[in-house]
Amino acid sequence: MGGSASLLPREALGEYQELTFLSKQEILLAYKRFSELLPKEERENACSARVPKSQILTLPELQANPFQHRICRVFSTSDNGDDSMSFEDFLDMLSVFSNSATSDIKSHYAFRIFDFDDDGVLDRKDLEKLVNCLTGQGKESRLSNAEMEQLIQNILEESDIDKDGTINLSEFQHVVSRSPDFTSSFRIIL
Q1: DSSP summary character for residue 143
Q2: Beta strands of the chain (E only): which ranges?
Q3: How far apart are CA 105 and CA 152, in angstroms?
Q4: For 1-94, where are the E strands, in sequence order?
Q5: What is the pTM of this model?
Q6: What is the mean pLDDT of residues 140-150?
């Protein structure tokens, strides 16, 4: 029989439990789901394999997420920028999006996902991309320029504590701390 659990070394399982917010069962399920994304001949070495971004994006849990590409970018440790994921990258992603992850961890990663240009602040361009992701890219759902400008202005007035025209991580975390739904809505469950 020897299911997928036998291919994940026991000591690695213990280590993953210590380093993530995931239970033993969640880690084993993650391993199974990750392995299934690999070609059959690579499944035995899933711990050392990388799954291409195109395969990661076939997960139903990511398909409907408007930030799917940013999620892959933020959690991938690939050196060549292809946003592929190792099993540990995959576990990190699931850990952050788990119910057990702290609000601080979730808000830190949400900030990184929303920081489209990876410059450490959410500026007007990041906020515009964020709004477009949330409202959809179609003409009927897209905001007019005036509506977009007003919304970005409102976001900055509410969030930009130091009034520098951008939202830094601590300002973002301050806003998130006042949003009781954030922690429960920022999740992916396999």
Answers
A1: P
A2: 50-51, 85-86
A3: 25
A4: 50-51, 85-86
A5: 0.91
A6: 89
